């Protein structure tokens, strides 16, 4: 099987399981929406809420829901020695990582489709006006989170306190992506609140940082995944 074929096979497996159970997307989306609603109620500061609170509320909801999705997608591989079956299959180790990372990316993007309108509603964001640049930031930020989380999710899958260890290890590692995403989202929301068109030059530097982080995370996953699972 080719590298691409093996990647698509692993991705298709995860998507079929999720379509049958809907447990990851449903749980993570509900949790993310709840975080956004609680933040909107707790931090009501008038018109400044949109630029000061909304970006952090949005990305905190995404970060925590990503940990839920990562924990569950690797827990499935732990059940009935499914991970062993993947490892003994005649496919490259890196293709397994690519398929799992693509599945996590798909799950988190679906969660974002739910939580972004919730944040826009409760924080009074003109979503149609910022949809293009915001979608670009969301994709760049989510790729880094999914790539890094999939790699270290494999590292913690065999431990007892998986979720706690994953969160402890993952959050410091993805902090550059989260900080850059929050900063870029803040600039986008600020332009919207000021009634101005979003200037891509204001978020270009943050997007460059996110692109670098994504490239490093993907390269690290491709290079290190085999050694982690073999150990």
What does it look like?
With 231 residues, this protein is mainly α. The protein has one domain (3-230). 86% of the residues lie in helices and 0% in strands. The protein contains 9 helices and no strands. The chain is elongated. The chain starts with a helix and ends with a helix.
Compute the number of strand runs: 0
Task: Estimate nothing, just give the exact number of structural domains.
Answer: 1
Alpha-carbon distance between the two ends: 24 Å
The main pleated sheet reads as:
none
Unreliably modeled segments:
none
Task: Determine the fraction of residues in helical runs and give it as a percent range.
Answer: over 70%
Global morphology: elongated
Provide a count of the helices: 9
- This entry's quaternary arrangement is single chain
Overview features:
231 residues; mainly alpha; 9 helices
Short description:
The chain is mostly helical and 231 residues long. Helix content is 86%, strand content 0%. The chain has one domain (3-230).
Please write out the topology:
Layout: H1 3-21, H2 23-42, H3 49-52, H4 54-78, H5 82-88, H6 93-122, H7 127-156, H8 162-193, H9 200-230
Helix pairs in contact: 1-6, 2-4, 2-6, 4-6, 4-7, 4-8, 6-7, 6-9, 7-8, 7-9, 8-9
